[in-house]
Amino acid sequence: xxxxxxxxxxxxxxxxxxxxxxxxxxxxxxxxxxxxxxxxxxxxxxxxxxxxxxxxxxxxxxxxxxxxxxxxxxxxxxxxxxxxxxxxxxxxxxxxxxxxxxxxxxxxxxxxxxxxxxxxxxxxxxxxxxxxxxxxxxxxxxxxxxxxxxxxxxxxxxxxxxxxxxxxxxxxxxxxxxxxxxxxxxxxxxxxxxxxxxxxxxxxxxxxxxxxxxxxxxxxxxxxxxxxxxxxxxxxxxxxxxxxxxxxxxxxxxxxxxxxxxxxxxxxxxxxxxxxxxxxxxxxxxxxxxxxxxxxxxxxxxxxxxxxxxxxxxxxxxxxxxxxxxxxxxxxxxxxxxxxxxxxxxxxxxxxxxxxxxxxxxxxxxxxxxxxxxxxxxxxxxxxxxxxxxxxxxxxxxxxxxxxxxxxxxxxxxxxxxxxxxxxxxxxxxxxxxxxxxxxxxxxxxxxxxxxxxxxxxxxxxxxxxxxxxxxxxxxxxxxxxxxxxxxxxxxxxxxxxxxxxxxxxxxxxxxxxxxxxxxxxxxxxxxxxxxxxxxxxxxxxxxxxxxxxxxxxxxxxxxxxxxxxxxxxxxxxxxxxxxxxxxxxxxxxxxxxxxxxxxxxxxxxxxxxxxxxxxxxxxxxxxxxxxxxxxxxxxxxxxxx
Amino acid sequence: xxxxxxxxxxxxxxxxxxxxxxxxxxxxxxxxxxxxxxxxxxxxxxxxxxxxxxxxxxxxxxxxxxxxxxxxxxxxxxxxxxxxxxxxxxxxxxxxxxxxxxxxxxxxxxxxxxxxxxxxxxxxxxxxxxxxxxxxxxxxxxxxxxxxxxxxxxxxxxxxxxxxxxxxxxxxxxxxxxxxxxxxxxxxxxxxxxxxxxxxxxxxxxxxxxxxxxxxxxxxxxxxxxxxxxxxxxxxxxxxxxxxxxxxxxxxxxxxxxxxxxxxxxxxxxxxxxxxxxxxxxxxxxxxxxxxxxxxxxxxxxxxxxxxxxxxxxxxxxxxxxxxxxxxxxxxxxxxxxxxxxxxxxxxxxxxxxxxxxxxxxxxxxxxxxxxxxxxxxxxxxxxxxxxxxxxxxxxxxxxxxxxxxxxxxxxxxxxxxxxxxxxxxxxxxxxxxxxxxxxxxxxxxxxxxxxxxxxxxxxxxxxxxxxxxxxxxxxxxxxxxxxxxxxxxxxxxxxxxxxxxxxxxxxxxxxxxxxxxxxxxxxxxxxxxxxxxxxxxxxxxxxxxxxxxxxxxxxxxxxxxxxxxxxxxxxxxxxxxxxxxxxxxxxxxxxxxxxxxxxxxxxxxxxxxxxxxxxxxxxxxxxxxxxxxxxxxxxxxxxxx
Lengths: 642, 642
Prior knowledge:
Two copies of one chain form a homodimer. Chain A is of the alpha+beta class. Chain A folds into four domains: 8-73 and 116-195 and 297-363, FAD/NAD(P)-binding domain (3-Layer(bba) Sandwich), CATH 3.50.50.60; 76-114 and 200-294, D-Amino Acid Oxidase, Chain A, domain 2 (2-Layer Sandwich); 372-421, no CATH class; 462-641, Glutaredoxin (3-Layer(aba) Sandwich). In chain A, the strands form five sheets. In chain A, strands 6-5-13-14-15-12-16 form a seven-stranded mixed beta sheet. In chain A, helix 1 runs parallel beside helix 4, helix 1 runs parallel beside helix 7 and helix 8 packs across helix 10 (408-421). The longest helix of chain A is centred in the middle third of the chain and has 26 residues, at 353-378. Chains A, B: It comes from Amorphotheca resinae ATCC 22711. Chains A, B: One of its GO terms (molecular function) is FAD binding. Chains A, B: Keywords: FAD, Flavoprotein, Oxidoreductase. Chains A, B: Residues 425-633 form the Phenol hydroxylase-like C-terminal dimerisation domain.
């Protein structure tokens, strides 16, 4: 190593400044990591590309504080999807139905898809990165890399970078290398990682963004249109823009040619025929492109847990369900906090293994879904009663007769809504997502009635913050700070007083998860630190089943939890989904409204474990075992005593 | 006039870039007027001054598209007010109760007061002005003005301006001059307009913004604290800032001296004594000031309807209720659209007379309220049951036994909440605000059940926009575009089909209010124009008591209304305030859910008139008479035939 003292070192080198690279970079930059981020384009995306932000992704952007900057561009919001088919009665197409894109059976804060030009979304991240001192180096590309932990255990990855015009060159060392290069990934090719094509059918798509003048009534809705002249998909956009997707060729065509193309004018003429009896004229075309797409998934997301890939480098699929950017975001989020916990010394390095297992499953689900979704759309229009049944809300919905099965259409529809909204992402059991086979074993884990499912995001709820009486969205109260989120539902103070004291007492014991990762600078932390006064490993929230005015923090909250004084809440806001509950947030979580419970949420928002809040040491002991399963230390009493 | 060809001309010269001047300038700049705007400070407010945005003002800022920029600063939000008094049992103060600052009996979108440094708010306006080509000229001041319609009927006002260092001078001509100079208004003095002091009691206030370390539990709430050592008011702010108001002297003191002052340290020591048994230490003081305040109101807001004043130039009062900036905003809003309608040729010049009559009444109410509010706070702590009764919501509230009167406390409390929220502003009947003595006379005006009160803002409601299925806040759908807002509640299409056709037919008749003010460029208006395709005088919205999916614009909506295709709505969103209504927006307005009705809202958001939607010509005839009462033309059939 002494021979190479001149190489700059970074925590991570990130290749590609699309959604996956930018989200990863933004998280790690905020959490204090040193980043080299390059992109081979001279500037951010100018036109076209992905543009759909699903409801769950909007939650995530809000949690990062980026939602206002996104919404400032006044994106289009898609609440419903309309279906158009050849009319039986007249010439041309007719609307056969509309569906909510995120029906109310999904408890979403933002029950719509947000549509905005990818370049504008990229710029929101780039401007945040600049605040944290990271500037994307453009137009630069990767020319080679080597990873060898034996040679340099601290910075095992050596990366060769080059200006795209071949002039400047640079070799740097890093702890990690990440490829967010898109479907043609140099890193993936170098690693000789194959792509598996689940569905052998490939397509050529034409996509056109423009401003149109039309009397087609659903031009501001997402539409799937089938006609005797072909099919088209309509996606509204900001600033009166509309995107049209037209399938130009399919590998099922007799004359299939993956290089088949069509001119702008041909696509417009095709759209005019398909939209009959309505007229359409283009005032302006902003972007037009033809590209072949095959569904594919990378065999591996990493080889050595030092060089990782995410986003389109790992999975490609049709643009129809608008999942590309959202899946990329969640790849990055999943990896970001795991790298952070390993590098901060909180987690065992094996935590990184769960990136591929968790995210590859989601990509596989996405590809399976893509096929199902296509089939759902191509079958005959569903009956109105099925749509009504599929989109019904809890309130006012007719009770289903006992034993009556949902039909296949409704089942698929509901699944597809969950999937496209992003609320359907579910990670399998592992050391992070508790299941009966998890090392943490205790009768108080997963209490009866619990409605949060491990591996899924926390259920939304409204509560009142005690210190300032603000009504807030509880699931958004902790920003994306890389910490585990521990929600102590404290039920009624008169009932849980002893349990809370015991909880605090056991937290403070030597070698608990709490005392094991205290900040080294804990004695000089500002009085105003809201989220991480004790440790970057966790943030606590305490929620009482009381009215705000009945809670006195100095009297009701043990000191260790009271230190999070901006995270103490009254569960006193009525919710139409649990109209009879006196403590709606407790009720939505499926926790006892008197006795409470503890919910641990991973830094990325997915539920890890739910435990009863009981007197004695069992609650903290269960958390110690849970965290001990993937942490760099083991906590508490020997496990045999649990 | 020929002797002065060199003078630049403006539509308006605005003196002062505080809230009142900025809001006026922003509106008029957007609507295309040529503005000279000066301020005698070298830059916007750096620290201190007003900082409370009441719920109704936040609605207004949102309607102007400025709310996101305000909220980007993460202001504090005050949901509750806490009261602290000397403890009977122990040494020091104790909390005697808390009240919602905007209880749920007020149907507010934002039931809180937003607190943000005035300079940040000013910059939001300034940046919007710059987009419209207006730059505040600083530091310049006004040295003289003359108004003479005989000399120059078009630009009657001549204004002498000067750089504050006396170097540069400029004389310009304008149609209007506006003083938003604050309480020491040069313009007011020149016009020799007196100030009437309703309450002879004056006060000296100390105000301190800073970051504190304290164990006082309500430091993030608005608090009124009485102690044996004096009184203090706590107002939370953005970025952990807190503002303290301390009364330093009162003209009721035996040793009253309006020049009495106190040092920063004296005020801090005083606060420490008052807050016992809690401790408080300052980490940083951002601003400290001592100033005398007397309640006062200008005798006139204008002399000749060319030179106007608004904001603190017209009314001064204690800062306790946080009304200064909000009242200033509404002064400006009221004047802005009236100048616009006169200059656009829509309204008779006499419309400008209503500025003083409407706004002076509000200032008088404010001063009366100020006294009542002070009394409310100084009396003994209210009983818990009275607070509960005063803040109860519709849902779940105990029914009051018939005949039981609300007690005085509850009555005053409710009034004060309406007032401080801004939802209590009510203009008296005049040509704009219909009453039985209005020239428009028809049995279909003010239909039975109507819940909107003329001179008050439109009731809030949620509806679904038909073209894109977005769920929207109806009262926000028309931006602050200077146009009258005509809400056609169209009930059930099967019932109102003929009435709607007749409405459209009569609109299109020669010399209706509709045909009288068509845009001269109507034939070249863009297909994408949403709000003013026909005229800047009005914007139409049409709301059906149907599900969105049952509405087909091309079939159900007459062409003239269908042109506003982005303003066609389905009244199909459930509302907890009218849980049994099938068409909640119709129900909240008190309109028949089958037959609908028409609500005309002034450009500033206040209801002008409510009329039934009937078959035949009566509905349009009633609107013709209403608009004819203040317009530059008279409309429709001779009035005798109504």
